[in-house]
Fold:
Amino acid sequence: MVADAFTVMDVDQSLVPRSITGIPAACVRIGTYNIHSCVGSDARFSPQRTARVINELDVDLIGLQEVGWHHRGEVGVDQFNFLADATGLTAYAGPTKHNDQAHYGNAILTRLPVRAMRSIDLTVGFREPRGALDGDVLINGRVVRVIVAHLGLDPWERKRQIQQILALVEAEPGRSTLFMGDLNEWTPNSSRLRLLEDQFPGCAAPRSFPNRMPTFRLDRIFLSPDLALVEQEVMRTALTRRASDHLPVRATIGLV
Structure:
């Protein structure tokens, strides 16, 4: 039994691509989720619980942040492989920190065909190592660029990271692109968000942090103009309120 229902927000029916039957056509479900190294708000390490959350989301593709050991969790447990096995999805790892017994960073889990996957180093100076995964994913016959990132804690650091990502996107104009992740942007109208909004007119950004009383829109999914945001939702259940300090965000995306 599901403890709570999904919270549904901001459905723009004018953007929903329709078939002749009136059913949304060429749509996929995607998500973004900071899993906090599989350590929940109860301080318990449980990759099994994290996998349950991902399975209940029932997405075609999800971008994960804080996968692996990082001052918490359990050294020696390969969370990338565990989550792939437990969800039945293919995992693409983008670690930013390496340890003899474990790694830590971003991941993409998907059931969709992947044509290519690249890593982006977003580390700024001597700040904590940061990065992104940059993949070419086949969605209903179209190759869509999917970038999953976890940005830094300082505003000036995030600005440089966003400029780096936008430079890569602008170098290949006209490509269908999704950019998602934990952006660590607390201020609703920051200049850094405006930079992204100029490139990506669509954005799924329900309140997702902190888990108990979500106030901030840290976890976002940006869409290029040729992709439609059909629906966005944040998963608030008894399970997700324990599994991580963030709540997972899910969006239904249409190809237009």
Residues 1-24 have pLDDT under 50 and may be disordered.
